[in-house]
Amino acid sequence: MTCxxxxxxxxxxxxxxxxxxIAAVLGGLFFFKNIWWKxxxxxxxxxxxPSTKKKE
Amino acid sequence: xxxxxxxxxxxxxxxxFVFESAGKLYRxxxxxxxxxxxxxxxxxxxxxxxxxxxxxxxxxxxxxxxASSARFKTIMPQFIPFITYPYEWIFEQLQDAALLxxxxxxxxxxxxxxxxxxxxxxxxxxxxQAVFIxxxxxxxxxxxxxxxxxxxxxxxxxxxxxxxxxxxLEIHKVFAAYPEGIDASTTASLLPGKARFNIGNxxxxxxSASFSGKERQSKIEFNRRKLExxxxxxxxxxxxxxxxxxxxxxxxxxxxxxxLNNKYLxxxxxxxxxxxxKIDPHSAIDLGCNEGIFSKMLAKSVxxxxxxxxxxxxxxxxxxxxxxxxLNIIPLCVDLANPPGDAGFYNSERKSFTxxxxxxxxxxxxxxxHLCIGKNLPLEKVADFLSLTRRWLIIEYVPPxxxxxxxxxxxxxxxxxxxTEDTFLRSFQRYFTVTDExxxxxxxxxxxxxxxx
Lengths: 56, 453
Fold this sequence. Notes:
The complex is a heterodimer.
Chain A: H1 2-6, H2 16-46, H3 50-55
Chain B: E1 5-6, E2 16-21, E3 24-30, H1 34-42, H2 45-51, E4 58-61, E5 71-77, H3 91-110, E6 113-115, E7 123-126, E8 129-132, E9 138-140, H4 150-167, H5 171-177, H6 184-190, H7 199-211, H8 224-239, H9 254-257, H10 262-279, E10 283-287, H11 293-301, E11 304-309, H12 312-324, E12 329-333, H13 353-356, E13 361-364, H14 368-374, H15 379-386, E14 392-397, H16 403-408, H17 421-429, E15 432-439, E16 446-452
Parallel strand pairs in B: 10-11, 10-13, 11-12, 13-14
Antiparallel strand pairs in B: 1-2, 2-3, 3-5, 4-5, 6-9, 7-8, 14-16, 15-16
Helix pairs in contact in B: 3-4, 3-8, 6-7, 15-17
């Protein structure tokens, strides 16, 4: 009975919660990727840069 | 009295409707859509989309053809020479249509608007370039809301592409079965188990499938950055999809591998280019185009060419070439023995494939034996079908002794009894006059130029 009721929900409204979750997960991934880039950047920066070395 | 005819495919959108008056197509914009239309035009969005060639342009016209009280404005949209539908497209065409939709959506967001719907029926092809055709799809953007058309976008673009990538079920067949797209639960049941191990599939397919029918409009607030992230994610995922069927063509290398030698092919090209000079058509359709050797030849002198084949990988090759070189060819994947019929509500929203065909020239090369022997269609029926040309038919007659015919007739030799040059000519002369007839060197085959009676 409940199933039949839900069939009449406007298709456009059904994806709101899903989009909330997707946005949250993607936001989380973005956050961790950012940290990863920062760590990577930290280690690459600490190495002597070959191009600057040449100039010196 | 009404002097206009509302277009049978235009009644679902309350923002306006398309109508025909004196042989031209117009679109009425209703008062209810006025403020969105004003934003589209004044924000610079319309200008940007049309100058980039992403959306069709239109002209506002002073029209009193319909005395509708709901009327705000009337526009005359840019003419689209040949309308096609996703159940005639290949994977790459749907993929390009999806990416264009996302691009239009992103541009709209930059101008504080969004797309209120997202379906492949809002995309058409001019040559091999996808173009957005629904001027009335834009709405002012409310940043607190997620994308109203997200689900529709997934069901009609993303999921069919995923299904082809994972199962090999081709786009035109997916849309023949699901003209309005595949919902998340059905997609989830079609995808193989390994699809679960992909975070994109998990988010867009399995999550949606587990929620289907279990929620109502949420009151949680959304924002622009979140929506941009979803758009970007969809864009990346769709860009990286690939059709699984790519390597399995029956027809690839048809000319390279068959006994049909170079002499045959070059003479055939020579004869056809001579015939084309003689008849000088403005539009042409190449039925059974294979990889489009002759469609490309047509495109050099004919302003509009449609190329049709039932083999998706062949169509795909032609499409990528036509797209790259900006050729005036619309490649389509259609089984001529079972072309798409009238579809949609009242069978009148979308015309059948056959009823959309109106070309000066029909090219039917190495086709007739596939229909007659391969699909058991009598020559009389084939002649009747090909008389859908506006005037000319160039047809290749493949004799019963031909290697390809014998191959097709191996298990049904009885079909060869009625497959003779005599029956061929008798059948076609019912509808056509023979204007020219030339044997193709290096084979027993013949080319006929026929003029419709």
